[in-house]
Design brief:
Dipeptide-binding Protein, domain 1; disordered N terminus; 3 domains; alpha+beta; five-stranded mixed β-sheet; Dipeptide-binding Protein, domain 3; 531 residues
């Protein structure tokens, strides 16, 4: 699992930017649109809360960008909001503990008119398996011990070690057509895949237009280019302000937008339908490097025990709080059932104060704590673009002051996240979230090399119990056994206060004049325009 890789994906996954506008945070459900009268054609306008930058499915990392990938690129299997796997480019598959063989559908073509073959699918997997290519899925879904080969319309992926999650991991990779693999740089501002749509116009910072392809016949659940209700075009519009997006939904200027803040109330009152996606908005991570106060487990435990979890949770979720039951929050939600195996302790400021005393932080005459003459000061990061984060951070600051902790609040923009988490490492904790869909992806951030060493462990966590369990889970004999081990491992992270799952919420994507399925982001083949 340890490898050289750009930390950019980790930035995208951890900052989580809770104003989730069509981003990959998993889940589904919510209210369905009342109308079932579909009208084919027209334009589906969706809000993007940031410019996606590179559009490459191979290396693009921003959450907004990953939400756009499925419009032009299909996967071998479709994962539903309930975590079920359905045929997509592959019509069937057979698994062993160390391999999976997909039989691909006939007649699949690329947007450039070429045929999509099992050989191209194998080339995709082998490209992703090479760490030198620095791809999005390398090290998580596709690992260095995997290889792929084609035989006619069959694709076989082999793992050198037992892998209980071959279907969920390999089936999710978006397939690039051969010309795109041959020249990956062309994918940054153009598309070359088998998807229902292809990019036809891009205006950086403004709009991205995707046009429906003719002759598409291989979609999940029998979707074709002729399926009733599909739009002719999809336009992603960069709308960075939630209130503006809500106004556009109400006026008909948008068909879909993610609204995480207070504007959701007026959209509900107006009768707009929505689909919810889990958002671990209150999750807190800790910098455990030796020069930080949070390197001491007693300090981390004290900080969590001092918090009124319900009060902070209500603020950070804008009144839509729910308890986190897993650190895995994104589709396909592997190993979430029957969990968690951890239990968060009740708030106990007195015990928190005692733990700080054990750590050597003594209260002065003013009640504030110091060790060897150095004040106990915590640098707390939160997302400047998330409306509820600032108020919740101020509540944290006030509650920690009660036990003698000074807190510096830092509102981060994307540049700030990258600088503090990956360059200066000048942070202690904050509302910093991970959004993995499997415990294997979660392990990238806690197991193995730190980001200084080329890994994803930007927190500098060294949890021997977690690492030992992770080693066992990687090669468990079956998925049921693996999930049990992974849940034990997750408990080790929470109990040691490497992560504090304070609260999560359901961030809805609201619709107007259209509906769609949501499994983290909108599923393009499910979009239906309403009459």
């Amino acid at each position: 699992m340890t490898r050289k890789h750009s930390p950019a994906y980790a930035v995208a996954a951890t900052s989580a930017l809770a104003a989730l506008v069509l981003t990959a945070c998993g889940g589904g459900g919510g209210t369905e649109a009342a109308s079932t009268s579909y009208v084919s054609g027209g334009t589906f306008n969706l809000a993007l809360n940031d410019d996606p930058g590179s559009l490459s499915p191979l290396t693009g990392v921003s959450l907004v960008q990953r939400a756009l990938v499925p419009y032009a690129y299909d996967s071998l299997v479709q994962t539903t909001a309930e975590g079920e796997f359905r045929p997509w480019l592959a019509e069937s598959w057979k698994e062993t503990p160390t391999s999976i063989t997909y039989t691909l559908k006939e007649g699949v073509t690329c947007s450039d008119g070429s045929d999509f073959s099992a050989a191209t699918a194998a080339a995709n997997i082998n490209y992703q398996a090479d760490a030198e290519n620095g791809t999005f899925w390398n090290g998580s879904n596709i690992t260095a011990d995997m290889s792929a080969e084609a035989d006619g319309n069959q694709l076989t992926i082999t793992s050198k070690t037992t892998n209980p999650f071959l279907l969920s991991s390999t089936g999710a990779v978006e397939m690039v057509c051969q010309k795109g693999l041959d020249d990956p740089d062309t994918l940054k501002d153009a598309t070359n895949g088998t998807g229902l749509f292809e990019l036809t116009k891009a205006q950086a910072g403004s709009e991205y237009t995707y046009t429906k392809r003719d002759g598409y016949t291989w979609g999940p659940d029998g979707v074709t280019s002729q399926t009733e209700g599909l739009p002719d075009t999809v336009v992603g519009k960069v709308v960075t302000d939630e209130s503006t997006a809500a106004n556009l939904l109400l006026s008909g200027g948008l068909n879909a937008a993610g609204i995480a803040g207070s504007d959701r109330d007026r959209l509900k009152a107006a009768g707009n339908s929505s689909k919810g996606v889990p958002n671990p908005i209150g999750e807190m991570l800790f910098n455990e490097r030796s020069d930080r106060p949070t390197a001491d487990e007693n300090v981390r435990q004290a900080l969590t025990l001092a918090l009124n979890r319900e009060a902070v949770g209500d603020i950070v979720t804008d009144g839509y709080r729910s308890d986190m039951t897993s650190l895995v929050v994104q589709t396909p939600l592997l190993c979430v059932a029957d969990g968690p195996k951890w239990q968060l302790p009740a708030s106990d400021p007195s015990k928190a104060a005692a733990l700080l005393e054990q750590a050597g932080y003594v209260a002065g005459a003013d009640g504030m704590r110091a060790k060897d003459g150095k004040p106990l000061s915590i640098r707390f990061l939160y997302d400047a673009g998330t409306p509820s984060h600032a108020a919740a951070a101020e509540e944290v600051q006030a509650e920690w002051k009660e036990i003698g902790v000074q807190t510096e609040l830092v509102a981060e923009d994307p540049t700030g996240w990258s600088t503090d988490l990956y360059q200066t490492y000048d942070w202690d904790t904050g509302f910093i979230q991970l959004a993995p869909g499997t415990p294997v992806v979660l392990s990238l951030f806690f197991y193995g090399a730190t980001s200084e060493e080329g890994g994803y462990n930007f927190m500098g966590v060294k949890n021997p119990e977690y690492n030992a369990l992770a080693e066992k889970a990687f090669t468990a004999e079956n998925s049921q056994t693996a999930c049990g081990i992974w849940q034990d491992a997750e408990a080790q992270l929470v109990e040691r206060a490497d992560v504090y799952p304070l609260a999560q919420t359901e961030s809805p994507i609201f619709f107007a004049g259209a509906t769609a399925e949501v499994t983290g982001s909108i599923q393009p083949t499910s979009i239906r325009m309403l009459g």
